[in-house]
Amino acid sequence: MIRMYLAAAGMLLTQWALAQNRIQGEIRDAENDVALPGATIMVEETEKGTVSNRNGHFELNGMAEGEWDLKISYVGYEPIWATVRVPQDSPLLIRLNPMTVTTEEFIVTGTRASATTPTTFQVIDKSDLSKNNLGQDLPLLLNYTPSIVIHSDAGAGVGYTGLRIRGTDQTRINVTVNGIPLNDAESHGVFWVNMPDFASSVENIQIQRGVGTSTNGAATFGASLNIQTDTKKEAAYAETDHSVGSFATRKHTIKAGTGLIDDRWAVDARLSRISSEGYIDRAFSDLKSYFVSGGYFGEDHVVKVNIFSGSEQTYQAWNGVPENLLETDRTYNSYTYENETDNYQQDHYQFIYAGTWGDYLKANFALHYTQGQGYYEQFRPDDNLPDNYGIDPIVIGNEEISQTDIIRRRWLDNDFYGAVFSLNYVSKNGKVDAILGGGANRYDGDHFGEIIWMGVSGNTDIRDRYYDNIAVKDDRNLYLKSTYEFRERLYLFGDFQWRNIYYRFEGINSDLRTITGSQNYNFFNPKVGLSYETTNGKTWYASYAVANREPVRADFTDSPLEEIPRPETLNNVEAGVRVNRNRYQYSANLYYMGYQDQLVLTGQLNDVGAYIRENVASSYRAGIELDGALQLNTRWTIGGNIALSRNKIDTFTEYNDVYDENWAFAGQESTTYQDTDIAFSPNLVGSVLLDFRPIKNLELSLLNKYVGRQYLDNTQQESRSLDPFWTTDLRFSYSWKPGFVEEMAFSLKVNNLFNELYEPNGYTFSYFVPTEGTSGRELVTENYYYPMAGTNFLAGLSIRF
C-alpha cells in the first residue's frame, strides 16, 4: 500500500510539472456592467473550479493545452457555458444576464446555511452523487464526507442501511426534503429503504454538522441533511440507467422530462427498480420507486407539485451475526422462515410555492402529505399464548396447550401532513438578510398486530388484533434568523426558534400493557455567531447554539408513565475557517457538543422485561475536522478529510440481569463507570481520495476510508467493541458521445478492493449466570455484528437521449 501511494505521489509531481497554462477572465453584469464577485467557474470535464474575486476577475492555473468547456454561474443570474482554447489569445469577458424566472433554490433557503452562516456545512451536488449511484442506498453515497460512518444490515448497501455523523445516529439527525420533514415523528428515525434510488432525483444535499440552523421537524441533535430534489431542466431529455453487480444486485432506472414548454411549464418523471440477494444469507431486497414533478415557472412565481413513492420488501437480517460465527460463517442469518420479511410502502405528496414579492421580499410555502402502511412478518416457534397474545390456553381433551407455533404480522399505518413556510427579506443595501419561517405538522399513527397462522388454533380469527394502539403528535415551530453585515465583510448571525410538541397515545402495546398518556413540550432554541470574509477567499466563523429534543415513542411506551425520561439538551460551539482558492479548497473546524440528560440504553428493565433508556446527567463530544482538496493539474486531484474527537460520558451506570442456579431471573445488578466513551463514537474517522484523468472524459478514483474503534455500549470495554477498519474502493468512469444518442457513460465500482473483513455496526448485552459446580457466578457477554461484504463490484451503463 505504501509503495503504491509513493508511486502515485511521484506521478503527481511529474504531471504537475507538465502543464502550467492558465485560463483568465472577468465576470460582469450584462445590464449594469458591474463586476460580479463570487461567481463560480467550473471546468466541466475535470470538475476543477474557482470563484471570481471582488473585481470579477478569475484565473485557472495548470491547464493542459486544448479546448475546455466552462460553466459560469452566479446566484440570481442565468448560467453560461463557454468553450475556451488553451493557450488563450486574450482573457475572457463573460457577461451574465439576471435570471428572469424565479430560482428554485429559494425553496430550501429557509432551512439551509449560506456562505456567511457561521456553522459547519458541506454541499454535495448531483454530479458527486451520480458517481457512486449504482444501486446502493443514499447513506453509502455519502460515505466519504467528513465524520460519517455508514452501515448495512444485509452487508451490501441495499435494504436497511444507516449512517452516523460525529457518532450521532439517524434518530438525532434532522432530514428534510425541500424543507419538508422526513424523520418519522415517533421514532425520529429515517428509513432509507422506503426511498429506493431517491438519489437519482436529488439535485443536491447540504450536510450541516452540529446543531446547524433552524429547520422543520425533528430536532437537529448532531447533524442535519437538507435535500433538494431535481430542479427544472431547460431542454427535453430522456435517460436510462442500468447497473448489475455482486449478490445479484440489479438497478434499472428510466428518467424523462419535457424541458420548459412555452418558457413556463415543465414535467419530469423517474421510474426505478432495485433488487439484491444481499451479502447476508437470504437478506434479499426487492425495491420499487417513482418520482414525478410538474410545475409552472413564471418570472416572479414558481408552483411545483412533487409526488414520489417507494415500496420495499426485505428479508430480515436484524439479528446480526453472533461473535462466535464471525470467523466461520460471516453470512449467517438466524431467520429461516421463508417469509420473514419487512413490507412497507410510503407515498409522498408535496405542493410547493416560491415567489418574489417586490424588490426585497421572497416567499416560500409548502403543503405536504405522507401516507405509509406496512408490516413485518415473523415465525415464532413455541410461543406463549397467554403471556404474549392474551389468548387463553387451548383445551383439547384433557390437554391444556399454552404454547404453539405462530406466524404474526406487526403493522404500522400512519399519516403525516402539514405546512411549512418562509419569508426572506433582503434590505436595499444588502446588509440585512432575514428569514421568518416555521411549520405545523401532524402525525397520526396506528400500531397493531395480527396472528395469521397458528400450529394449534385457539379462540381467535385471522384478522383479530392482539394489540392495537394509536398515537397523535402535533409539532409546531416558528423561527427568525438574520444575517447583518455591520462592518465590511463582517457578519453577525442570529437564529431563534420556538418549538412545541404535543404527543398523545392510547391503547394496548405490543407487550399487552395498557398505554395511555400525553406529554406537552415547549422548547426555545437560540443560535448566535459571527463570520468574516477576507479578500483572499477565506471565511472565518464561530457560533453557539442550543437544541432541545423530546424523547422518542419507545421512551413513552416502555417506561412507566410516571417515570418518562426528561428531554435532552445540547449546547454546541462551532468555530472554523473555509477557504476556496483557484487550485485548492479546504475547511477546518473545532467543535464542542455538551449534552444534558442525554438518553442512553443502560440495561435497565421495565416492569415487563423490556430495556428502557435513561438520562445521563452530563456527556460531551469535542473534536477537530479537516477537509480539503488540491487540484495538482488537469489530470490529478487529491483530497480527503479527517476527524479527531473525544466522546465521553461523565458517569454511566450499567444494569445486568442476574439468573439463579435454576436459571430463573433473580433481578439486576448495577455497575458504575466514570469518564467512558460514548457508544458508536470513534475517536478517528478519515478519508483519502485520489482522482486521475488520463484523457478527456475518463476518470479513475481510489477511495480510502478509515474508522477507529467503536464501542458497542458505554462501558468502554474492548471485548464489547468494533475493531478499527480501513477500506479501499476503486472507481472507473468513462463517457462518450457516439452520435446516435446524446451521451453514453460507463462506470465500474469495486468495493472493498483488498477484501477487508470488517463490521461497522452491532450490539451487545451481558448477564450473570451461576458457575457450574461452584457457588460462584460469571458475567456472560454476547456480541452481535453486522458484517460488510468482502470484495464486490457494481457496473453501470447510462444512456442519455
TrEMBL record:
Q: How does it sit in the membrane?
A: Multi-pass membrane protein
Q: Where in the cell does this protein reside?
A: Cell outer membrane
One Pfam annotation, family name? CarbopepD_reg_2
Domain TonB-dependent receptor-like beta-barrel residues, every copy: 319-753
Keywords assigned by UniProt? Cell outer membrane, Ion transport, Iron, Iron transport, Membrane, Receptor, Signal, TonB box, Transmembrane, Transmembrane beta strand, Transport
Instruction: Please list which residues make up the signal peptide.
Output: 1-19
> Domain TonB-dependent receptor plug spans what residues?
116-222
Q: InterPro entries attached here?
A: Beta-barrel_TonB, Beta-barrel_TonB_sf, CarboxyPept-like_regulatory, Plug_dom, Plug_dom_sf, TonB-dep_rcpt-like
Q: Can you tell me which family this protein belongs to?
A: Belongs to the TonB-dependent receptor family.
Q: What's the name of the protein?
A: TonB-dependent receptor
Q: Which organism is it from?
A: Cyclobacterium jeungdonense
